[in-house]
Amino acid sequence: MAPARRVALVGTTASGKSELALAVARGRPGVELVSVDSMCVYREMDLATAKPSPEARAEVAHHLVDLVDPGEEFTVAQFQDAASVALAGIEARGNRALLVGGTGLYLRAVTDSFTMPGRYPEVAAALKSESESPEGLAGLFARLGEADPLAASRIEPGNRRRIVRALEVTVGSGRPFSSFGPGLEHYPPTPVRLLGIPFVAADVDRRIDQRFDTWMAEGLVDEVRGLAQRPGGLSRTARQALGYRELLAHVEDGVDLDEAVEAAKRRTRAFARRQWAWFRRDPRITWMGPQDDRAGIVAGALEMLDGRP
Question: Residue 141 maps to which CATH number?
Fold first, then answer.
């Protein structure tokens, strides 16, 4: 395998990865940070996305933040294209890219150069309608098994979202869904050096609670209220963001504020555990221990890029 050309720092939400990445970049001129976060791409969604502050962004170059309005949908394929442009620019300047974030699929799109299948909204709408009953979903799974046996073998029969997506691509593109790549269960060699902060449940849960309380004190309800009042509204994806979905229920539907906050914290804790389940399956990630000099390890990996000191 070719030597690593980039470094990625991964971990769950509230693991401290962003703070670590910023500290490393501050001490290493020429390091630029590349956000790998599906919600930091949205403008006006600042607090509950844990977006880097204006001061941090003025001090260290950050990329793939504030790309689109919150009323727009944003896909993995769009992220992949934007990341390709950002990384090429960093390397053209002779600088070093440090990717940092917790959106596993977005990271895989960069590290493994997935060929991203297109979207076929009309096909998807028809399939979603058909999948709403158990009998309809079973019929779609059988249909997928005939059209793309390999894809069907990788999907649980009750996983509505994945069945619909696989059939959407198969029908819409005329190509089997499985032909677009070996699937997420395959971990090929990558030119990205992957470093990770392990999940420690008690620490992450505490940080989630403290962080959300800080955001509330800084005006998160007002931020969400402003988003809800946007003339264009919010996209389906943006509305599902951690914290925003729950506070939108408070602002728009009158859900009790304390109940909404607790629901947001609870969903964030569950999300962190799903992130950890995703990342720990990847054998290419080197996990840094609690006693390790984590900043030194990340900085050392950046120094080794292209053999430069």
Answer: 1.10.20.140
CATH of the domain at 57: 3.40.50.300
Residue 213, CB-side half-sphere exposure with 13 Å CA sphere: 6
pLDDT tier at 309, thresholds 50, 70, 90: very low
Question: Cβ(251)–Cβ(84) under 8 Å?
Answer: no
Q: How many domains does the chain have?
A: 2
Question: 220 and 191 in one domain?
Answer: yes
Per DSSP, the three-state class of 47 is: coil
Euclidean distance between CA atoms 95 and 172, whole angstroms = 41
Domain-located, residue 43: yes
pLDDT-derived band at 4, boundaries 50, 70, 90:
low
CB-based contacts of 112, cutoff 8 Å, min separation 6 = 181, 188, 190
Residues 174 and 106 in one domain: no
> Coil, strand, or helix at residue 87?
helix
**Each residue of 154-205: pLDDT tens digit?**
898 999 989 999 999 999 999 999 888 767 778 999 999 999 999 999 999 9
Q: Which domain holds residue 245?
A: 6-115+186-307
- pLDDT tens digit sequence for 226-267: 999 999 889 989 999 999 999 999 999 999 999 999 999 999
Task: Report angle CA 200, 201, 207 to the nearest 5 degrees.
Answer: 95
What's the pLDDT band for 2 if we cut at 50, 70, 90? very low
- The CB-based long-range contact list for 294-299 (8 Å cut-off, 24+ gap) reads 294/20, 294/197, 295/20, 295/23, 295/24, 295/27, 297/195, 298/7, 298/9, 298/20, 298/21, 298/24, 298/98, 298/195, 299/24, 299/27, 299/28
The H-or-E segment that residue 271 falls in is helix 257-279
| Domain contains 55 | yes
CA 148/CA 220 separation, integer angstroms: 45
- pLDDT exceeds 90 at position 307: no
The two three-digit tokens of residue 219, written as one number: 């005006």
